Amino acid sequence: MIANNWIFWFIPVASILALLFAWIFFRQMMKESEGTDTMKKIAQYVREGAMAYLWQQYKIVIVVFIVLCAFFAVLAYGFGVQNGWVPFAFLTGGLFSGLSGFIGMKTATHASARTANAARRSLDSGLKVAFRAGAVMGLVVVGLGLLDISLWFIVLNHFVEEATDTQKLVIITTTMLTFGMGASTQALFARVGGGIYTKAADVGADLVGKVEAGIPEDDPRNPATIADNVGDNVGDVAGMGADLYESYCGSILATAALGASAFFLQADLQIKAVLAPMLIAAVGIVLSILGIFIVRTKEGANMKQLLSALGKGVNTSSILIGLAAFGILYALGIENWIGLSFSVISGLVAGVIIGQSTEYYTSHSYKPTQKVSESGQTGPATVIISGLGLGMLSTAIPVLTISLAIIMAYLCAIGFDMKNMLTPHNLSLGLYGIGIAAVGMLSTLGITLATDAYGPIADNAGGNAEMSGLEPEVRKRTDALDALGNTTAATGKGFAIGSAALTALALLASYIEEIKIGLQHIGRNVLTFADGVTVNVSEASILDFMNYYQVNLMNPKVLVGIFIGSMMAFMFCGLTMNAVGRAAQSMVNEVRRQFREIKGILTGEATPDYARCVAISTRGAQKEMLLPSILAILAPILTGLIFGVSGVMGLLAGGLGAGFVLAVFMANAGGAWDNAKKYVEEGHFGGKGSDVHKATVVGDTVGDPFKDTSGPSLNILIKLMSMVAIVMAGLTVAWSLF
Amino acid sequence: MIANNWIFWFIPVASILALLFAWIFFRQMMKESEGTDTMKKIAQYVREGAMAYLWQQYKIVIVVFIVLCAFFAVLAYGFGVQNGWVPFAFLTGGLFSGLSGFIGMKTATHASARTANAARRSLDSGLKVAFRAGAVMGLVVVGLGLLDISLWFIVLNHFVEEATDTQKLVIITTTMLTFGMGASTQALFARVGGGIYTKAADVGADLVGKVEAGIPEDDPRNPATIADNVGDNVGDVAGMGADLYESYCGSILATAALGASAFFLQADLQIKAVLAPMLIAAVGIVLSILGIFIVRTKEGANMKQLLSALGKGVNTSSILIGLAAFGILYALGIENWIGLSFSVISGLVAGVIIGQSTEYYTSHSYKPTQKVSESGQTGPATVIISGLGLGMLSTAIPVLTISLAIIMAYLCAIGFDMKNMLTPHNLSLGLYGIGIAAVGMLSTLGITLATDAYGPIADNAGGNAEMSGLEPEVRKRTDALDALGNTTAATGKGFAIGSAALTALALLASYIEEIKIGLQHIGRNVLTFADGVTVNVSEASILDFMNYYQVNLMNPKVLVGIFIGSMMAFMFCGLTMNAVGRAAQSMVNEVRRQFREIKGILTGEATPDYARCVAISTRGAQKEMLLPSILAILAPILTGLIFGVSGVMGLLAGGLGAGFVLAVFMANAGGAWDNAKKYVEEGHFGGKGSDVHKATVVGDTVGDPFKDTSGPSLNILIKLMSMVAIVMAGLTVAWSLF
């Protein structure tokens, strides 16, 4: 069928274009000088630490992948409850996800000293180096994502043999969906391991360095400072990259599977519906590259101008992709192309609103965060209370936005046919619309991720400038770049959570497609309802499955699933919070030991043992990431084996509902605490060193695992649980207890 | 029909028996002396403050009730979308709930000085006075609850006219269900207002008194100390009482409604199924009174013996009610009486397990809380992180327990007919089983609430002893009583949350019954399905409604409802957390002002202005409780008007899932912080006054609104949202947008 659709080839071409530009930007960045010898040395330390960590992580991940792959192979070839492609799809997903994390981090660790050095020339040069380095990450993620999708599409198109083309396309899209689990699993370890690493180092460095010894952030006398800078790379770069790689692929694949199902009876439309999400993503790549080139500032730009320069790039890409959606869907000749284009736009707009609301709640230019600073006047306890309160309240706008986006995407896709809103055909079409909205939100990932990855690079550049003892003027510039990075990081986090929620919803819908395939795979081709009516599985609608499995809110299996899903989100956070606590504790003990045993560290006469702190963070992260990760993988499998399809769907819905809200709460509370401290440091309520400052430092420390470990890991949890459920669909239908 | 069932009269008799024993215990307690003049004076202050607060609260609640009643009257008599009994049922529910809060608090405020005075004689006498006073509360709640139910049953039986007895019983039970909303609304204000009051006073008193001025807890020099003691009464006594009154009535009424529906086609069984939950509750009252009499200790009993004395009373009642369930259900001649008896037992056992797990996670006799203390060695930030981690992890056991209880109650009720688990008949029967499990859990409320209300009474007795300057020996005894109270309070909180979850689930199931009545009320007597099949509303099964409204997890309205429900739980907590923060802030300012302006307070030469602090807490609570309360009432109404039945059910399920887990998390984190501080005060990690102690005081302060304001208020939120949905069912089916 591809042969008839020359338009398909636009997709691999766009992916290669992305990789090409990533390579160009990488070369450009590498041509910059790394600056003085000290700067080089420090950059080298950070690079080595980051790479050492990544290799350690990959070693463990490889073991996990081997175990899971063997498990899938047994299920597929031993028991025949699964498609034989699954183990391979799983592997490539993991491989490509790991690769994008690796490249992104390599780029980031090369870019930080270069950014600091460029900042010696001018603020603008610094911004350019850092942002282009971020763009490498953004483009690698979208490029590899779409490349993997294209390759699998070509391979499966060649090998899959089915009676009809429509049936074949269903098999292809549902098989491809399972490669998302590989990406998810890799992402989980990257996010959880990286998150634990970075915050163990950060909290440890802060607790002893800032609070006990009273030395500033990134001071070279602090033994944990290199580990802290390594952490920014492994957590915020590699972790974030793997997370969004997964959302990106997940949303495209889920939508393709929903499209194959929604248009099952119309062979000509079906292939178009499958290609549409991929094409929107492909056009998004081109427009992202365009947006990246738009980001320029004049010499001597101030903060506001810098922010608007970034904003201009992102907004241009977003508006253009919105317009392009109409063109793509029209050109494809999709039924109701206008409506579906508005579905794309509802996703795009939701992404922007969530980003804005994140900024409102976490930036100290606004009231909420300033109030958290103010509450420091009555000590650390009230800082914590007000930060938690702020975080909880801040969930309202994102949830209402996503809810509105879901409803709008659905209704647009069915052409506002309200009277028949939930007929089988409209349900398929509407869910496809929700998937398309997720794709729309993520279509600008090339550039949004660039602004996101820019943050830790600027942060590290500041660290490098501080440790290398560069002139105050330079540090001021890197501080400005860092501050900009904090804002983009906050909006980026909102975007990551929002897109994870929409993607998870699309995955939930496509779960039913996998159930269908699973049933056929084990030879159950007919659904027999309680009243004796029979429906062929291959022709059964989503609604038929809902009724057959009674996936309604009065089924105790669904209700129990919702309870367990909600609990999973909290338990997962509890495990990661405690992991950071324990790992930070070891770091604190190590730093205290070095201050005590290595004479002359605090006077600057002796060099601390940075490597040891790096090793401690690495070991801590490795040890602590296993339990939460295994739990996330086991929960949907066990729920499926015990409670069957309806239990699993309850689990996913409960995990999605509670997990999304919890993730927003944690990210925003953490962000607000961070900036509340910065607000005090800018001279409010007594400024640096005052009691209010000390109180807000406590908030900041609590916020660290909130915003950088547990909160972001939840994004993966909700997607991974869906992915595991999807891959295990065959197992669930074959063997579930009741 | 009642005439044929003499057994019905056992229910009002049991309720009057409860009230009689409550009166006897109250008289006994009042006969005790209040001790020295100082003790009397202090008790008088607290009593006046508590009563002043309660009247203020009732004033606001009356306004809210008038508004809501007028609204219901317009809906019922103006638009005819509602049953005409609703406004009256709503009123009595509120009245009786308010009354039990009032009596409980009056008793508690009379009991504290008497407990302190009795403790001058012996530990045992102190225990007896405090526990019997707590029993007054327990028995008043169950007595008034069952009395209200009995009276309405008699009245409606007299007035409701229907063609058949079975139809009549459906109307009676669904009408009675709406009186729960009155109780819920009253409970919401009691919990939220009381919770804000008590923690504003507590946090304010601690922040300035303990942390800044360095004076001990309950020191008479602290101007906020009387307000703090008042707070224990309005929050922990009146709030807790109203909360459990609501769970108690809600579970009985929901189960009765489910019973009327499940046995709709078997007139002889139907009345029995309706009476069964009431009879179990009635027998529970008798056995609770028995249990109360069992609580005795020998002279000179130690802590462990005290605890086992209480435990003996509760456990005896629980075991006996478990056995009695078999007898009641057998005597009634209910279909599958053995299975349903095991449903009762699954509820009872779940209550016990949740209580035990709460104790494990919050008592400093166990590892988790000790680790929180230990984390104080690295400052307040790690105390907060580890406490939050502990709270999140602690959600696992309660959620799994409730999940297991739900499944067991369901399966027992349908006689483990796994193959037909979800047929219409088995679904009704199974949901009835879940309701019966909730009734089982709450059947021992008479005695469990007694041990619960005992806590704040003992706490206040300690406060009185401290302020009156009684001998150290007496204070040691009141400290022992207080410590016992902390343990019972923790298990009581777990019990309150668990029972709220089961009750909310039963309410969710009975929501469909109200939808049925609502449809008939507006004259829609036939459901026409998409495929043209029609079903008479009066004969439609729960499953028919699920299919008709497509309350499944692929319906975007359901999914959006789940999102919004999850968000409601967080937002509600955010509002109450911030409310405590703001109210505490005013208290801090006032206490600081008094220390500054009234010379000689700290030297004991001048008396602080206690009344002003009481007034500030009262004003703060009044002002702050309105917004969260209105939100909780509006959310289900608006969701219903926009998204209809399926959206409301999503809202309730999402709110229940996230709300339950969040409530457990907050209660346990708060409890652990409290006891982690106590553990340090007992001399670990440096003891009182050390840096570790200061760090754990921060945790304790953060934990105050967690465990006493936001956490417990969530119990009401999840029940109230269901109750509002139930009362508004007519509105939803008549006018929903889509």
Note down, in words, how this protein is organized.
The first copy, chain A, is mainly alpha-helical and 738 residues long. Chain A contains 21 helices and two strands. Chain A has a two-stranded antiparallel sheet. In chain A, a hairpin with a 5-residue loop joins strand 1 and strand 2. Chain A is globular. Chain A starts with 9 loop residues before the first helix and ends with a helix. The model of chain A has no long low-confidence stretch (mean pLDDT 91). At the A-B interface, helix 6, helix 12, helix 13, helix 14 and helix 16 of A face helix 6, helix 12, helix 13, helix 14 and helix 16 of B.
Quick summary of this structure?
2 copies of one chain form a homodimer. The first copy, chain A, has 738 residues and is mainly alpha-helical.
Mean pLDDT of chain A: 91
> Level of helix content of chain A?
over 70%
Total number of strands of chain A: 2
Enumerate how many helices of chain A there are, as a single number. Answer: 21
- How many angstroms does the end-to-end distance of chain A come to? 41 Å
Structural class of chain A: mainly alpha
Key traits:
homodimer; two-stranded antiparallel sheet; mainly alpha; 738 residues
Task: Give the helix/strand layout.
The structure is a homodimer of 738-residue chains.
Chain A: H1 10-31, H2 37-78, H3 86-121, H4 123-159, H5 165-177, H6 179-213, H7 225-262, H8 267-294, H9 303-332, H10 337-362, H11 367-375, H12 380-393, H13 396-413, H14 424-442, H15 445-467, H16 472-521, E1 526-528, E2 534-536, H17 542-548, H18 556-597, H19 610-681, H20 691-727, H21 729-735
Antiparallel strand pairs in A: 1-2
